[in-house]
Design goal:
The complex is a heterodimer of chains A (183) and B (269). With 183 residues, chain A is mainly α. Chain A has 6 helices and no strands. Chain A has one domain: Ferritin. In chain B, 58% of the residues lie in helices and 4% in strands. The chains are: A mainly alpha (183), B mainly alpha (269).
Chain lengths: 183, 269
């Protein structure tokens, strides 16, 4: 059974919420992070995340949601996002964002692509596939910076795995529209 | 200063400002632009110092736009998109200037830095007031400066830096333009914002006066400060028009600044 139009709208709006949240997390970190090169990396990716959110917001409108509509995910996932946004050290921010949160979101997008009707929902597929390509570039840029600046390497090698476990612990993050708050 | 917690502020010469953003330990952060080294002419050290200072200003611009995204989540999405785009542009400016700084033998932390624009702008509690100061005042001033600087660098034989500055100028026009357009819209919708903007401009004047060098004070490189009237930059009328300032706004700016209407016909000055 493929996703209904209502299902698709809810997924897309939930993805938009996460994209906006991640954009704001990077924005919050820019002034708080001392390293110039990392500020630049985050500053560049704020725009990527904003464009991705915008694309999802426009697609949601085509799926009969209000324009640029966001749907808050399940509480446990929002708690994870909020906790992650409070990350303090630069290596944790970088490893958490580019090694855990973006790949985790990419897996959710892949799951969406597998479940939706790729013909009837092709506009969403195009938006999501474009985002996935951009995630690869963003992750690649973070890896290049980490090669250039070894001080960005993480001391606690187990930390990303713990975060990844939490990220993956909630497979379904979408809340039915009727009971969700608008972001 | 409404909305800021005490730990987010700093006191300097009787003024309460937003605390500085994070910087690497290699940087010496000073409290005012008067404490910055300003080397005369276009000597090697002067060139490095100019690019180093510009690089930190652009870093501040990324930080201000980013902080606006954080502090004003309820702003219209289209306006937030402009701010996000500005983060990208300013980040590229920082990277371009840092690349150029290294090419001419400079390095991060070689000169003291000041975060004046951040400390003033991010003290303000409305997005309209921040756009009025950061984009419509500081960045518009940069249009004037960047209208002249490429020619100066070319005269000194540095084509590469001139090209970097011209690229930055083109981007800055778009930042001033979206601020002008959105400020008109926001004020039309809520007239009280005009008062907030007027208060922001007055706040900037007060801080500028408080942090100005004392009479007879020498700069950190041992030179007398130039009188304000000798620091006048040609008004870049063409690019201010591109940035959607109206002719009457440009005339008013010239008049209020006490400038003779020295008009440049193009961005190069």
């Amino acid at each position: 059974m493929s996703l209904s139009v209502q299902d698709r709208a809810e997924y897309i709006a939930t993805f938009r919420f996460i994209q906006v949240f991640l954009m704001e997390a990077l924005a919050r970190w820019v002034p708080q992070t001392p390293e110039s090169e990392v500020k630049v990396l985050f500053g560049r990716h704020i725009w990527d995340l904003a464009q991705q959110a915008d694309g999802l917001g426009k697609r949601g409108y085509e799926l009969r949601s209000p324009s640029q509509f966001s749907l808050r995910p399940v509480d446990s996932y929002v708690e994870l996002l909020e906790e992650f946004a409070r990350t303090e050290t630069t290596p944790q921010k970088i490893h958490g964002f580019y090694d855990v949160m973006l790949p985790g979101l990419a897996a959710r997008y892949q799951n969406y692509l597998e479940r939706t009707d790729r013909l009837l929902d092709e506009p969403s597929v195009r938006v999501v596939e474009r985002i996935l390509g951009e995630f690869k570039r963003m992750i690649g840029e973070s890896e290049a910076l980490r090669k250039e600046l070894p001080e960005l390497r993480l001391a606690d090698k187990n930390w990303p795995a713990k975060l990844a476990k939490r990220e993956a612990s909630e497979p379904n993050i979408v809340v039915r529209r009727s009971s969700a708050a608008v972001a | 200063m409404a909305g800021l917690k005490p730990e987010e502020t700093k006191q300097i010469k009787g003024m309460t400002l937003r605390r500085d953003p994070a910087r690497e330990a290699c940087f010496k952060v000073v409290g005012s632009d008067a404490e910055l080294e300003e080397w005369p002419g276009m000597t090697e050290i002067s060139r490095r110092q100019r690019i180093h200072r510009h690089m930190n200003n652009e870093t501040g611009a990324v930080e201000i736009a980013a902080q606006c995204l954080v502090d004003f989540p309820e702003a219209p999405w289209e306006l937030r998109m402009h701010l996000a785009r500005q983060c990208w542009d300013e980040s590229r400016h920082v990277a371009g200037l840092y690349r150029r700084l290294r090419e001419i033998g400079g390095h991060k932390g070689e000169f003291p830095i000041s975060n004046f624009e951040w400390c003033v702008t991010c003290s303000l509690d409305t997005l309209a007031a921040r756009l009025a100061l950061q984009n419509r005042t500081f960045e518009a001033g940069e249009l004037d400066l960047l209208g002249q600087l490429p020619a100066k660098w070319r005269e000194a034989g540095d084509e590469r830096t001139a090209e970097v500055l011209e690229s930055i100028l083109a981007d800055e026009i778009t930042h001033v333009r979206f601020a002008n357009q959105w400020l008109r819209l926001l004020v039309r919708e809520d007239r009280r914002l005009a008062l907030k903007i007027a208060m922001a401009v007055r706040f900037l004047s007060s801080v500028t006066a408080a942090l100005a060098p004392q009479e007879g004070q020498l700069s950190p490189v041992g030179l007398a400060y130039e009188e304000p009237q000798n620091r006048i930059t040609q008004v870049n009328v063409a690019d201010r028009r591109q940035a959607d300032f109206t002719d009457s706004e440009i005339d008013e700016y010239l008049r209020q600044s006490g400038f003779q209407p020295i008009m440049t016909s193009n961005a190069e000055g």
